Amino acid sequence: MAPPTLPGPDENQDDAQWRTAGERIQTLLEASSSGGAIARERAEKLVREVTDLYGAMLQRMMDVALAEDPGLADRFAADDLVASLLLVHGLHPYDVERRVAAALDNVRPYLGSHGGDVTLLGVADGVVRLQFQGSCKSCPSSSITLELAVEDAVRAAAPEISDIEVVPAESDSGAGVIAPESLLTRVHANGHHWTAWQPAPELAELGDGEVGGFRVPGVMVVACRVGDDVLAYRDRCPSCTGTLAGALLSGAVLRCQNCGAGFDVARAGAGVGGDGHLEPIPVLVRDGVPSMAVPQEVA
């Protein structure tokens, strides 16, 4: 349910600082509005001039570097911060299809935790076409995976795309293309929607086999680490409807201390012996920080 590894609390701190520079620039631009429309326009023009200047410099550096050593393209693309800046200036050494394929490789461990996989069918006219295989097509967590993990990764790798289409496998009974806005239809119908990603750096401190409780805006969450994977679920036992506080982890089975019900955390919280199904909370590393997408009740 999470990427293969999560960094320590101090790892990638500098990268995270620069990845959020865009938000700080936007905040400063909004603050300039207090000086009136003319002040805001001048501030935006200044940002564009500086961006264009550094873009021209980056292009010349890329031309020189790749002419000397074409293998540097792989190193540039592997560095998230460098790659993101190259994307901003349209200088990324890889085409959109290769970038999307690499992004899907990064989220495959998350899909695998739900027993599924994804195939890139192609990219044409700004539309990415995907096909999912395995149990993730039908389990309640699949919509979460599609909407939050796959789309987040694909759009980060290829911000120029206009749409993502999910094509049913040939063996599926359904027909047609699933529009991105309908991916969470079943989850929404159950009375939930998903908020923005919430940073949870404490997740990186969990040791193998450890279980911890975390409070994020409006929701209590139980998280645990199984090997390299950190998995999180809403703090509610579907069997006894009580809290999972004090739950113990044996292998990949989380057992409620109140009623003894067990849940396979490595398989989207599926109940062991018909004990119901935990409600998963997506966990991804964003901007170098472990983060959770938290559900809230829809009024």
From TrEMBL:
It comes from the Bacteria. InterPro entries: FSCA_dom_sf, NIF_FeS_clus_asmbl_NifU_C, Rieske_2Fe-2S, Rieske_2Fe-2S_sf. May be involved in the formation or repair of [Fe-S] clusters present in iron-sulfur proteins. Keywords: 2Fe-2S, Iron, Iron-sulfur, Metal-binding. GO terms for biological process: iron-sulfur cluster assembly. The lineage of its organism: Bacteria, Bacillati, Actinomycetota, Actinomycetes, Mycobacteriales. Pfam families: NifU (PF01106). PANTHER family: IRON-SULFUR CLUSTER SCAFFOLD PROTEIN NFU-RELATED (PTHR11178). Residues 197-292 form the Rieske domain. It comes from Mycolicibacterium agri (Mycobacterium agri). This is Rieske domain-containing protein. SUPFAM superfamilies: Fe-S cluster assembly (FSCA) domain-like (SSF117916), ISP domain (SSF50022). GO terms for molecular function: 2 iron, 2 sulfur cluster binding; iron ion binding; monooxygenase activity; oxidoreductase activity, acting on paired donors, with incorporation or reduction of molecular oxygen.
